[in-house]
Amino acid sequence: MxxxxxxxxxxxxxxxxxxxxxxxxxxxxxLSPSAxxxxxxxxxxxxxxRQSQDVPPQRRRREAQEPASGPxxxxxxxxxxxxxxxxxxxxxxxxxxxxxxxxxGGYLYYEHLNGNITVTNTPEAKNSFSKGDAFNILIIGxxxxxxxxxxxxxxxxxxxxxxxxxxxxxxxxxxxxxxLSIPRDLIVDVPDCQDADGNVIAGTSxxxxxxxxxxxxxxxxxxxxxxxxxxxxxxxxxxxxxxNAVKTLTSAVGGVDVCVAxxxxxxxxxxxxxxxxxxxxxxxxxxxxxxxxxxxxxxDLDRIKVQQQFLGSLARKMSSSDTLTSPRKLTGLAEAATxxxxxxxxxxxxxxxxxxxxxxxxxxxKNLSFVTVxxxxxxxxxxxxxxxxxxxxxxxxxxxxxxxxxxxxxxxKQKAAQAAKLKGSKSAASEVRVDxxxxxxxVGAAQATLTWLQNSEGVTKSAQLGNKPTQARxxxxxxxxxxxxxxxxxxxxxxxxxxxxxxxxxxxDQGLPAIVLIxxxxxxxxxxxxxxxxxxxxxxxxQTADKSVCAQ
Length: 552
Known about the structure:
The chain is an alpha/beta fold. 29% of the residues lie in helices and 20% in strands. The protein is built from 13 helices and 26 strands. The strands form 8 sheets. It has an 8-stranded mixed β-sheet with strand order 3-16-11-4-5-6-17-26, sandwiched between helices. β1 and β2 form a beta hairpin. The radius of gyration is 36 Å and the shape is globular. The N and C termini lie far apart (95 Å).
């Protein structure tokens, strides 16, 4: 055989079987004919030696030879080049294969999680999630007894009523959030609503809030609409979960820490705990949340407090480094959360739920407040089994949420900096250039304000430019070089420091920079000071997520 072109297959280095074809610029696999394979593509039979040299021939590993006898001849060292090439070839190929598998596996797992999510379309929800705005998510826990081990909970044969209800408001600046619990036994008027197919479901008057879901085929959109009717707050999205969600989520994070101030032995929920601290998961966690006859006055309002304490602990656990740095726990959470949740179309994908979670993560636990709708016993009942909204105490709480006001002290330094905005030199009223927009719910508010500013306050370099999207509070945006004008206008209108935003001015119709005044829903009328009274946090019984409280 030709020693250069052929040899035994076991003498051929695998790395040398890949050769560069100068005609195509590609590496080609050259297999030995002696191994039962044809050359790929290889020179044609009968080709001249010169033609076959266009594609370098396959080489074989040289056999070690005995050195020739005689003085001056040294034993040659074996070459290692082929071995290095061999390792490089197989290592590179293996790495590429691993990368490919990882990419494909990651995509398939993403699609798997995405497929876990149940989506309900409702006209009451937004079709997208905005990461730059404040948002309200209605969290609903149903009493539907589906799933293994849930036969002993909830109402037998329940279609899935709104048993636990929390309206979660997250502030625009992500410094705080408010979780407003709505009692299931609150007497309300459930308005007409539409199901996913557009069918109208007639409303009912003076019924329990929990019937806003499940009853007569009502879905979560009907519950969202009922929340708006009761509080005046518009939910943007909803998340709904059943008993199984509690069990799987708590197990995924390795249990939730709770504390009870006394021994508990509840025959209804089957919860048995000794006085002190415990870590609960699965069935025990669900039993803890369902217990009502062992805490407080054995009513739903005291059970709500216990649930709030539990959710605060769950929030701490989910945001802890122990959870966030554990791939096992994060994977378990992803599986549990996606399987447990039913959501609206606006957040109905893994990507959107991730966006929601990342925004929630920005809120410090110490500024996540849990409150309950202020209520009183239903005066229409002799034996009090239901409650009604406290018309004196509830509106300030509702207004605080609508106006994006925190129920906790947030960023004292930032508040001090805002107060400093009102201090300093002020321009003359005649030098203030301002464009006025109406973002309130009052028709003609911008024109009325313009007339008052020009005729009563001497702010003659002003104009009104129509409507802007409705916003909760009045804002005044200005560029740094117009800060003195902004301070003068804030002084004239009685604006709080929180209304002032250093940013950009806009060019008015004369080509000059003008500060931008947008009237919000806190606008009370032209000439009436917007003194920030509506922005003060109400006095309300609350607890925050950073504190561990023992259930009484």
